[in-house]
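Before relying on records like the one below, remember that each one covers exactly one chain. Contacts with other chains, cofactors or solvent are not represented anywhere in the record.
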Amino acid sequence: APQAPSAAYAVARVAIAAVLIFSYPLQCDPTRTACDQLLGQAIGAVSPAAGKAYNERFPLIRHLTWTILLVAIPCCIAVTLRDYVMPILEVFCSLCGSLLIFCLPPLYFLRICGSASRIGQTPGKPDGKPREITVWPRERIAAYFNVGFGTVALVGGTVGAVIEMVNKYRELSKAGKTS
């Protein structure tokens, strides 16, 4: 009998869903602008002479149309092809999750601490006044450990997700052939 997912698994799924939901508008805006510019170039309306006329015609309608398309098309694909989309999403989450959680923050920390100690001034304040910053060796060791752990998690999670994706596609192809 299948087991019910644990509470930690449910919380992780909700957290990943929240990240995807709240990051989508950030990705949608530049995509919408690029699509609108490409459409303008394709119809010949974006040129030094005609660019302003295109930008002034129906901006709200174009904005809403692109937004609805950029939200509706991925939703329709995700709903109708759920069995195919979820394994790809798992690979994406294992790659990006490890980088965002374990690898990049300590690398930023090491970079900021390294540049601050070499220059002798507060990052972002080029006033030339030396600052007293102490980065303990255990902090650097913890940062390097975090990067190492993140790399192992990235590789292990990605390999596991790819194996699971291949197995899922094999099951789906077998089910498609037998039915």
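Helices lie at 7-42, 51-56, 59-80, 82-119, 137-178.
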